[in-house]
Design goal:
CATH topology of the largest domain: Rossmann fold
Bound molecules: S-adenosyl-L-homocysteine
Number of strands: 9
Distance between the termini: 58 Å
CATH class of the largest domain: Alpha Beta
Strand order of the largest sheet: 4-3-2-5-6-9-7
Number of domains: 2
CATH architecture of the largest domain: 3-Layer(aba) Sandwich
Strand content: 15-25%
Length: 261
């Protein structure tokens, strides 16, 4: 019997309808697969049934990793490590499909880290990741919406994102307190050539510091009241941060990099 560890966010998916939906949202056959946090292998089984080329799993829990090794030895490459310590870019030569039902705080951290580390050639084909529903709604939000903010702007810079489905707490064991959503991400071919993603993070942090206030103050803080950037981007300083589209934030970052380089 496996006892779920709360500290590792262990809520195992046990709903066959959802498990099928997850493996059917992308083409798995003959692809390289990376699954993070495979746990008791519930999703892993479904992935293997779809005849992938090679499956690598990364599981932090020693006991679960041992158990997976006993059950799936020949079929899996098992890495018993913390995903946060793994260099994702050096794992595969070919493009990879990534699946992950990780603890929710880690999902967001990993997604941000991967985007920030991304080079021009993407190491993955798609990411299929589970989030707390509330966080998923922030990730997929468009502008002029109260969910719009730093996370959606960072993600949309390099990735396209779609919701696959919402998942009820009863689809897991043990049953979590919150609803979940499954999101699928794919690379954007054209994205703004920001030199240092930290600058995008800085600008969105300062703009969204006060989401109810007009953008006049954050703008002046970052650009020292520079009028040229204002005119070039046709920016109305009476707007609120959530009224500015994605492109405006990427352009603001590019202008900021020009001024500071
Ligand atoms: N994907 C499985 C398990 C989900 S529970 C399913 O859907 O049933 C989350 C899993 O992530 C657990 O197995 C947990 O041990 C693992 N995990 C938690 N933190 C991790 C980390 N930092 N790196 C790798 N795996 C982690």
């Amino acid at each position: 019997m496996i006892r779920a560890k709360k500290s590792l966010g262990q809520n195992f998916l046990i709903d066959d309808i959802i498990l099928k939906q997850i493996v059917n949202c992308v083409e798995i056959e003959k692809k390289n697969i990376l699954e993070i946090g495979p746990g008791t292998g519930n999703l892993t089984k479904y992935i293997l049934d779809k005849k992938p080329k090679k499956v690598t799993v990364i599981e932090k829990d020693n006991n679960l990793a041992k158990d997976l090794n006993l059950r799936f030895k020949q079929k899996l490459n098992i890495i018993n490590n913390d995903i946060l310590n793994v260099d994702e870019t050096s794992l595969f030569k070919d493009k990879t499909l990534v699946f992950g039902n990780l603890p929710y705080n880690i999902s967001t951290e990993i997604l941000s880290k991967w985007i920030i580390n991304l080079k021009d050639n993407f190491w993955f084909e798609n990411l299929v990741l589970m989030f707390q529903k509330e966080v998923a709604n922030r990730i997929i939000s468009n502008y002029n919406n109260s969910n719009y903010g730093r996370l959606s702007i960072l993600v949309n810079w390099k990735l396209k994102v779609k919701k696959v489905c919402d998942i009820k707490p009863t689809s897991f064991n043990p049953i979590p307190k919150i609803d979940s959503s499954l999101l699928i991400f794919s690379p954007r071919e054209n994205f703004y050539k920001i030199k240092n993603p930290k600058n995008l993070e800085k600008i969105t942090r300062i703009f969204f510091n006060n989401r109810r206030k007009m953008i006049k103050k954050p703008y002046n803080q970052i650009f020292n009241g520079d009028q040229k950037v204002l005119e070039k981007l046709k920016l109305d300083l009476n707007l609120r941060p959530q009224n500015l589209g994605f492109d405006i934030y990427y352009k603001l970052t590019e202008e900021y990099e020009k001024l500071t380089s």
